[in-house]
C-alpha cells in the first residue's frame, strides 16, 4: 500500500491550525484517502466538556425539586424563594462575563481546570449549609463556576475538532445539559423516596461530588488549544500541542508546521473594547439578544415546572400540613417534570443531527416560533379544568421543551462560539452567556412573584411574545456559521 502524505505534492509548508485538524490525507500518487477519525485526545476533550454541561443541568434543574424542601427548612418567603431559584443563575451571569474572558488571557486549559475546582468547592460547602445566607452563597458560587464553563467548554471543543462536524460535536456536548436536567430530577425523586425528610436536598447535591472530582483530574491531561497559542504568537508551542491533539496510529500528520497570524492580527484590540467595535457589533447582537430572550422562557419554565405542575395537574395536597405532605407534593411534581424533560433530550438530538446540515440560523428561527406555539398551547389550559387542562399543559410544555433545544437553547450557544475572532472568542461567548443569564435571573427571581400576582396564563402569554421577538432578531442579524473555519475569524 502506498504511503500517505499531508500534501498531494509531497511538499510540507506552514499551514493554519484548522488546516491540520480538517485535512484529509493523500496517497503518494495524489489520491485522496478517507478522512481520519477523531483521535483519542479529541474525544477526551469532548467528554470532559460534556461534564460541565451535565453538572449545569443537574444543579439548576435539581434545584426545582429541592426548593420546596429548602423553603421548609429555612422558612423562606416568596422573595427568598425567588433568590434561591436565581442564585445559581446569577452566578452563571457573573462567571460567564468576569471569568469567561480569562480563557483569552491565560489559555483554555488553565481556566478549564480552575472552573471545575471552584465548582467542587461550593458543591461540597452546600452540604453543610446551616442558614439561608450561606445557601445563597453556595448556589451563587456553583453558578460562578458553571458560568465560566459556558465559553471555555465551547472553545476547547470547537478549537480541537473538524469544521464539518464541529456543530454536532458542540451541540451533543451541550445536550448533556438536558441529560443533567433529567438525571437531576430523577435523582431528586429517588432520594426523596429513600429519605422522605426535609434534609434530603443535601444528598441531592452531595452525590455529584465524586464524579466532579474525576472530571477535575481528567482535565489536567488535555493539551492547550493550538488556535490560542498560534494567535498569541507562540507557534512552536502550538505545533507541540497540535501533535498531541492529533496523535494517532499510524501517525498522521507525521510533522506539522503552524503559520502564525500576521502581526496586526496578534496585536488587535482584545477584551470588551474589541467586542463593541463596529465590525463585531452584528455578531454581538446575534449572539446575545436571542440568547437572552430564550433564557427568559427556558429557565423560568425549567425551574418552576414542578411548581406549575403541582399547582395545576392535581392530586396535590393543597396545604402541606407536615413533612409527609410536602414530600408527597414534591414527588408528584418531580415525576411530571422528569417526563417533560425527556423532550429536552429529544430536541437536542434533533439539533445535533441538523445543525451541520441545514444551518444554525434556520433552526434558531424555527425553534423560536415552535417555542411560542408550545407556550400558547399551555396558556390555554387556564380556560379549562380536569383532563383537558392537564393535556394542554403537558402538550404545550412538551412542544416547548422540544423546540427550545432543537432551536434557540442549542443554537444560541453554538453560534456565540463561532462568530467572534479567536483572540476575543472567550470574551465574546462569555459576554453573550452573561447577557443571556440576565434574562434567566430575572425570570427565576420574578416567576414566583408573577405567578402569584398575574397568574400562569398571563405569564405564559408574555413568554410567547418574547419567543417571537427572538425569531425576528435572529433573522435580521443572521450570520450563518455552518462549516466555516475558525481560522477565518
The CATH superfamily is known as MFS general substrate transporter like domains
CATH level-two architecture? Up-down Bundle
Structural class: mainly alpha
Give, in spatial order, the strands making up the sheet with the most strands: 1-2
CATH topology: Growth Hormone, Chain: A
Q: Tell how many strands the DSSP assignment holds.
A: 2
Helical percentage? over 70%
Question: How do the SSEs run, as a string of H and E?
Answer: EHEHHHHHHHHHHHHHHHHHHHH
How many helices does DSSP assign?
21
Keywords: Membrane, Transmembrane, Transmembrane helix, Transport
Organism: Martelella mangrovi
Membrane topology: Multi-pass membrane protein
Subcellular location: Membrane
Brief sketch in words of this structure:
The chain is mainly alpha-helical. It contains 21 helices and two strands.
Descriptive report:
73% of the residues lie in helices and 1% in strands. By secondary structure, the protein is mainly alpha-helical. The protein has one domain: Growth Hormone, Chain: A (Up-down Bundle), CATH 1.20.1250.20. Strands 1-2 form a two-stranded antiparallel sheet. α5 runs antiparallel to α10 and α7 crosses α19.
